[in-house]
Design brief:
alpha/beta; 29 helices; eight-stranded mixed β-sheet; 23 strands
Amino acid sequence: MNIEKTAVIGAGVMGASIAAHLSNAGVPVLLLDIVPEGASQRNQLAESAIAKLLKTDPAAFMLAKNARLITPGNLDDDIEKLAEVDWVIEAVIENLSIKQKLYQRLEGICPATTLISSNTSTLPLKLLMADAPESLKRRFMITHFFNPPRYMRLLELVSGTETLPEFQQAVAEFADLRLGKGCVICKDTPGFIANRIGTFWITCGVQEAFKLGLTVEEADAAIAKPFGIPKTGIFGLLDLVGIDLIPLIIKGFNKMLQEDDDFRKLAPLPDLINNMIAAGYTGRKGKGGFYRLLQIEGQRVKESINLKTGDYGISIKPQMDLASDPKFILSGNDKIATFCWNVISQTICYAASLLPEVAEDPVAVDMAMKLGFNWTYGPFELIDRIGAAGFCDRLNLENRTIPALIDDRKSFYTADNGRLYCKDLLKQYQPVTRPDGVLLLSDCKLTNSPVLHNRSASLWDLGDGIACLEFHSKMNTLDMDTMTVIRKTIDKIGKEFAGLVIYNEAEHFSAGANLSLLVNAIKEKNTAAIANLIRVGQETYQALKYAPFPVVGAPSGLSLGGGCEILLHCDAIQAHAELYMGLVEAGVGLLPGWGGCKEYLRRQLENKKRFGGPIPPVSQAFETIGMAKVSKSAFEAKTLLFLSSRDGITMNRSRLLADAKAKTLALSAGYQPPEPYQYNLPGRTAAILLNMASQAMHLVGKITAYDTVIADHLAQVLSGGDCDITQPLTEEDLMSLELNAFLALTQKPESLARLEHMLQTGKPLRN
């Protein structure tokens, strides 16, 4: 079964967002909803949903033009068109009767080869298919997307006993390869896996914070970093998803779950939460939530609610020593340690008690929580980090029941002979299998020691003559230690390997250069150190570009500044679809200094679709770099020319390394380094035109006065300085212009102010 045409029924937030992500896969989508009573436009609901999607932030579409793949319609006039699609996703209101009546209509229209699924998260499949004909049951399943569908990688799949395996296989393969989803097979139980455990964790966390008298900041900070949980924590997450949803979800679980289920033993939510909802404080979509942002005297001020009084006050970051090791925080005896232990231990025990009810093995549960809630570690991986024996000892001391799955006091995961194993329900270790085409660096590390290593970067052997350069500093920022490993890598690979992939499994590829090093040098007026930092980066990236082996960058997430520059020096890029790539140095008062200007300008000059003449490519590079443009997807990175037409895009993050390795192997056969590039640039004429353009933008308020200063230096670099168009410049000439402009900007106090503001707040300063 091939899925080439799709349909979504229900143009609400979730249904429309699913349609948008199907379009991101390049698949035509028919989006249908009812005809509103008295509506003059019969497709009003679907059309308005598409219009809203185009304004959504974060963007639902990887490219705005993907919206053209969605055809709006209605269930009265267009339902017959469903006979032409391969997969129909129902995403209507969570009303059993409405859904079942819809299925009856679909059964009479869709051919037997059409998969029909529901996006429900509350209604079990056995209820949805009650009294349904066998012909429908054979091609029906639940496909539960997480919101927002573009960004959340989890897709929970629930099949009935009658569902034909080929339908589940087809949707799983399509979701994996085309939608980038991690598919988890779930049993037909209330809330499936992620929402059931996640809601338990949230509810437990709220109650414990109230009980122990914590502030929302203390609770969120404590439960996040040590346990690999996103920094939103619990209260920040509630604000994000909508506080008003939680009472409804809890009510639904209490109706569906057995009386002895530990979820039903949790105490009711505190009255403060119900009062917040009644007053419209439902989170980010309302007047605020546990946190809120206010404009006071032109300044954005973050406030948080006092859980005791219900009053708002200035949000204060808690002063806590939060190591990444969960054992450290759990070993304490203060209220923070007590809070973390109570929440984490109850959540782990609840997750362990749910097997085999919700899934066949712990791996599925861990995967669901990592992909559905963005946890770094699933519940069973957390047990291993805490220590299974110590965990059980503490439960014993507290006279608490130890779930049968962990009472053997053994870890859940172990590695042997290069394979990862996980304890099954019989407490026997079974190999963790990866789908074909999935290669994880974490698996490669199980039996290998790094070929090279320091505190900022490491080199790993991927096999087949291909090595992997990994950054692992904070936010994968780049420093002199990084450059040292790169230079050693070039020598090592030239002798022992056939090619190199630059990749890591962190959330972000690289946030760029380590700005704190630069700030210190500027404050000390150490121009020599700044110049050395730039020269070393330029020379290192040039050496990588002209190395006698192919280099393939494999970025995901943020790839900014120096991280973008190293990618521009690679022979090829295999990017994850969620790539936010850009030369953003102007935002901190600087210019790209490690060859980013020359490499991006080259891409503009080589662009076959560009306007003729010497100035348009320079002007386009000037605009992109000067405005610090960042792609909102890998597809947009291609339109911005950060990626070339030859570069590849991988939808599924888990497949990125394997795809990059394959690309490197293909390039290694008969590889020859690129020829040095020569630049024919227009010189002062172009610089004057670009300076005039920046001044005009300043006059209309689009950029600040200091932005024009940065723009003047950028124009000088991109135009080639005082060159003549008949006399080509070398790459070294462009790097010299970069260096001079960079050094000039570091002498200005406005640049230092921008740098310090970015380090302190993580946001650009518009001075």
